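lol forgot to send this yesterday, sorry. struct tokens for the thing we talked abt
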């Protein structure tokens, strides 16, 4: 029987990594549907992420197949994620101003403060998803973009609704209409937010003047900039939420790893990278071939979808020693969880900062951290995370 990649089947597995191993064993390229191929190995995935012969702009038929309303597909088509050069280059440069290293570094103290507040609120039995992993990136993104505190409870549900449509989620009746309504509301809100910031015109405000970079006669319109600010606000929710949740789950289920992190808290940065590798927050990403490609002896024609299995690449034994072992001291760690090449994740620095703040607090600032129930996985064909992660948290310095 011919092995093929079935995203829906893998999404339902509590542990998908044996399935990814079987796909790697079957070959570097395996079928994934009519005209669709999945790439399984680290070397090939890494090469294709940077290959100019593959792109991230998809034809109409791909968006039509999603079943989403036109407002939603139009929104996603406008984002920096789904544009290629030269439009991608210009958009990425504009968006990078909002996530510049200086701007992110300036958040370090505030992120530590937020993490402390969230853990304090969870003292006792808690859900690490609803109490920590979900609210932290939402709050940080709101502060980074300068969304007024008074508006955040209003903005958050619309952003979360739109985030649920990001990637190939398991959708239920009514989701699509709610997502279209969220796009309309958020566009109006962000358009006014940018206009107001432009009127204030502070030199230290990365949002001020953003609309002035639009070229009405060119590729970058004011509407496209609005959509990309919205995208930056919610796009990091899932990645960072899943990084925090899967990292916490790994520590809760492996007391030996937790003990080592507490004994050697200087390993927090490498632990973040290992959590990203071991249980990738984004399991796969798709590309479109612009020209025929020879890949490990197989020819893939132009205008074919290729699914790059980031999670499979991260467990490839040809690149990682003991790939199925969680080693928080692993170095080097060339995982591809933030992609690579021109579409390398814009929010990677911020996600790492938030993850490090959480795991440093667990290592140094808790008297107890242990499981308190059965974790509930989130069903999603692209993202790997949890809906619920019960834990018992006790404040105070670790007694070791």
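and heres what i got for the seq, position by position
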């Amino acid at each position: 029987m011919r092995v093929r990649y079935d995203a829906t089947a893998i999404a339902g597995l509590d542990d998908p990594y044996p399935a990814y191993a079987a796909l790697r064993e079957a070959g570097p390229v395996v079928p994934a549907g009519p005209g669709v191929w999945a790439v399984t190995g680290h070397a090939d995935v890494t090469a294709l992420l940077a290959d100019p012969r593959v792109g991230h702009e998809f034809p109409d038929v791909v968006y039509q197949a999603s079943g989403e309303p036109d407002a939603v597909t139009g929104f996603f088509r406008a984002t920096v994620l789904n544009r290629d050069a030269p439009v991608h280059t210009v958009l990425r440069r504009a968006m990078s101003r909002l996530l510049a290293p200086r701007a992110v570094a300036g958040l370090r103290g505030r992120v530590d403060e937020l993490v402390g507040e969230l853990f304090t609120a969870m003292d006792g039995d808690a859900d690490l998803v609803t109490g920590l992993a979900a609210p932290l990136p939402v709050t940080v993104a709101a502060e980074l973009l300068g969304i007024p505190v008074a508006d955040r409870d209003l903005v958050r549900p619309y952003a979360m609704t739109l985030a649920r449509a990001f990637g190939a989620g398991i959708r239920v009746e009514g989701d699509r209409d709610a997502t279209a309504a969220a796009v309309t509301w958020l566009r109006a809100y962000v358009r006014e937010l940018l206009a107001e910031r432009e009127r204030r015109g502070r030199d230290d405000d990365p949002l001020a003047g953003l609309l002035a970079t639009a070229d009405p006669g060119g590729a970058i319109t004011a509407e496209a900039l609005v959509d990309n600010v919205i995208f930056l606000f919610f796009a990091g929710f899932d990645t960072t939420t899943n990084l925090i949740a899967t990292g916490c789950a790994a520590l809760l289920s492996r007391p030996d790893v937790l003990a080592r992190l507490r004994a050697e808290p200087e390993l927090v940065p490498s632990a973040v990278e290992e959590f990203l590798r071991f249980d990738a927050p984004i399991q796969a990403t798709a590309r479109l071939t612009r020209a025929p490609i020879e890949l490990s002896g197989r020819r893939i024609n132009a205008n074919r979808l290729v699914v790059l299995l980031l999670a499979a690449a991260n467990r490839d034994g040809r690149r990682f020693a003991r790939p199925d072992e969680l080693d928080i001291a692993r170095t080097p760690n060339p995982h591809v969880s933030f992609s690579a090449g021109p579409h390398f994740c814009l929010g990677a620095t911020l996600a790492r900062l938030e993850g490090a703040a959480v795991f440093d607090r667990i290592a140094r600032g808790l008297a107890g951290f242990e499981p308190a129930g059965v974790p509930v996985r989130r069903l999603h064909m692209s993202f790997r995370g949890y809906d619920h992660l019960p834990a018992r948290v006790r404040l105070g310095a670790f007694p070791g």
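Residues 47 and 341 are 9 Å apart (CA to CA). anyway ping me if u want another try
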